[in-house]
Amino acid sequence: MPLQKAPLKQGISALMKDMMDRTDTSHDEFAERLSTLIETFVKSGTVIVATGIPVATAGGPTAQTGATTATGTGTIN
Prior knowledge:
The protein has helices at about 5-20, 25-45, and strands at about 45-50, 55-60, 65-70, 75. It contains two helices and four strands, in the order ααββββ.
């Protein structure tokens, strides 16, 4: 799933409006709420890892286990 930019924009706009309407603002609350919006935005993406990462396997023909032997490169869509 691609990154969801529209909800992030709406969330930031709502946060700004809410903070501007207050008589007592809190920098800590603003930072906490903004960081939550950003975290949600980043987690809305799908990480796609390149194919062809080397794998070492062990075990019998019907019970293979394995792990990658090299690092992969991923992108967030």
